């Protein structure tokens, strides 16, 4: 079955970014000239997924407003002859977005279950909003790669990257049984292991394509510490030989981390046709003073 829908959990409180996240939901923090959540929507469109379910917290109307129509603003831009800005505005409301509200802070699996009414037991893509993955034009993006593998194998597939040293303990970690044509067969998962517990150097990153039936599996899970964990479903799939993983092209930015956020802002500004040259010159001048 083709993957047509994606879930984007976006209800986190973003406390690491206080005070800005007191009133502004974390997915609305800008990377260069767009909120992070819009990059995720664009990544999905590029991969051919048009139906987005964004799981937001109770105070996130601003995310809904961002993707909604703004007739007054559009009228004004047109009457002022600001065609380019009008097109930018139109692009933000061109996504097919549904919203689900996550009332309780009950983790990633809790967020996914909030989207159940839109997904049922269909396969879906899952994208964590704290991570941006840049792929150059013409290059296969991470999501495109995962969808290609899913379509070939019919199995759930997760994106992975190699990590070393202390970074191993920051991520879910996979055991790799075998590898063929860059597709790894995963046989176990361990969430945020110590270095000694790690199964490999491959970390799970925030891009998944999950096969049909995941919602039912999540609901059947027994809670641990009063919470259910996506990792437990992934581990079940891995044990049954129903989980693959793949590395990807492109650059991953962890925008949930302050340094990652700054790096993403600088690099997206450098890549912009509008500001790239000026930013490059500025950075050179600055580097001389450091
Ligand atoms: C989640 C997942 C983890 C994964 C990580 C990627 O953890 O549980 O397996 O490696 O995202 O960013 P979190 O960072 O939400 O704690």
Give the gist of this structure:
The chain is an alpha/beta fold and 290 residues long. The protein is built from 12 helices and 13 strands.
List the defining traits of the structure above:
25% strand; two-stranded antiparallel sheet; nine-stranded mixed sheet; alpha/beta; binds 1-O-phosphono-alpha-D-glucopyranose
Structure notes:
The chain is α/β, with parallel strands linked by helices. The protein has 12 helices and 13 strands. Strands 5-4-1-6-11-8-12-10-9 form a 9-stranded mixed beta sheet, sandwiched between helices. Strands 2-3 form a two-stranded antiparallel ribbon. It is globular and about 60 Å long. The N and C termini lie far apart (54 Å). The structure holds 1-O-phosphono-alpha-D-glucopyranose. 1-O-phosphono-alpha-D-glucopyranose binds next to strand 11.
């Amino acid at each position: 079955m083709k993957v047509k829908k994606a879930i984007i959990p976006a209800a986190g409180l973003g406390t690491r970014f206080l005070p800005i996240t007191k009133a502004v939901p974390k997915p609305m923090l800008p990377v260069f000239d767009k909120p992070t959540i819009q990059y995720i929507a664009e990544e999905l469109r590029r991969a051919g997924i048009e139906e987005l379910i964004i799981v937001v917290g109770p105070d996130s109307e601003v995310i809904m407003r961002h993707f909604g129509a703004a007739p007054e603003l559009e009228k004004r831009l047109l009457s002022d002859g600001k065609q380019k800005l009008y097109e930018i505005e139109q692009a933000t409301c061109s996504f097919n977005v549904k919203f689900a509200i996550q009332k309780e802070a009950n983790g990633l699996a809790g967020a996914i279950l909030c989207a159940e009414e839109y997904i049922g037991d269909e396969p879906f893509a899952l994208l964590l909003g704290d991570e941006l993955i840049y792929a150059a034009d013409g290059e296969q993006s991470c999501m495109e790669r995962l969808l290609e593998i899913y379509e070939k194998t019919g199995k759930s597939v997760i994106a992975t990257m190699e990590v070393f040293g202390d970074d191993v303990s920051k991520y879910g970690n996979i055991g790799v049984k075998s590898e063929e044509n860059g597709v790894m067969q995963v046989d176990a998962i361990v969430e945020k292991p110590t270095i000694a517990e790690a199964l490999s150097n491959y970390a799970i990153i925030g891009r998944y394509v999950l096969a049909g039936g995941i919602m039912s599996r999540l609901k059947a899970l027994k809670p641990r510490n009063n919470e259910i964990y996506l990792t437990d479903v992934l581990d079940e799939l891995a044990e049954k030989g129903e989980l693959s993983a793949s590395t990807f092209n492109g650059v991953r930015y962890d925008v949930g981390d302050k340094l990652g956020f700054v790096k993403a802002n600088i690099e997206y500004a450098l890549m912009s046709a509008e500001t790239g040259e000026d930013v490059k010159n500025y950075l050179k001048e600055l580097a001389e003073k450091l």
